[in-house]
């Protein structure tokens, strides 16, 4: 799936990256932004249950599902963990309009009452 981010949070991890505390893991140029919400703008083949315009948030951890940690239910410590916005491009890509790839299995629906855009862009 592809999302247009509405909001991207900056958290302590992003500050550690900015200050160089994660240089061994994050290489420049990097596209940060692992805390994101937005709308679906494109759904790929074989993806079901999602539609253009759906409001979503993304769990930014992409795991392999095959290592001992994953098989024990501990995907957050997968040996091949891809932390979106740290290990792979995140939601602050700066494209116009901004777009961000997000695996459907990591995407969660937002309540319809949640506003995703300010300044009249809802």
Automatic annotation (TrEMBL):
Catalyzed chemical reaction(s): 2-deoxy-scyllo-inosamine + NAD(+) = 3-amino-2,3-dideoxy-scyllo-inosose + NADH + H(+); 2-deoxy-scyllo-inosamine + NADP(+) = 3-amino-2,3-dideoxy-scyllo-inosose + NADPH + H(+)
Function: Catalyzes the oxidation of 2-deoxy-scyllo-inosamine (DOIA) with NAD(+) or NADP(+), forming 3-amino-2,3-dideoxy-scyllo-inosose (amino-DOI).
Annotated EC: 1.1.1.329
Protein name: 2-deoxy-scyllo-inosamine dehydrogenase
PANTHER family: L-THREONINE 3-DEHYDROGENASE (PTHR43401)
Keywords per UniProt: Metal-binding, Oxidoreductase, Zinc
Keyword Cytoplasm annotated: no
Pathway: Metabolic intermediate biosynthesis; 2-deoxystreptamine biosynthesis; 2-deoxystreptamine from D-glucose 6-phosphate: step 3/4
Organism: Streptomyces lasiicapitis
Boundaries of every Alcohol dehydrogenase-like N-terminal domain copy: 6-91
The keyword Metal-binding is assigned to this record: yes
Family note: Belongs to the zinc-containing alcohol dehydrogenase family. DOIA dehydrogenase subfamily.
Pfam families with a match to the protein in the record: ADH_N
Major enzyme class: oxidoreductase
Cofactor(s) it depends on: Zn(2+)
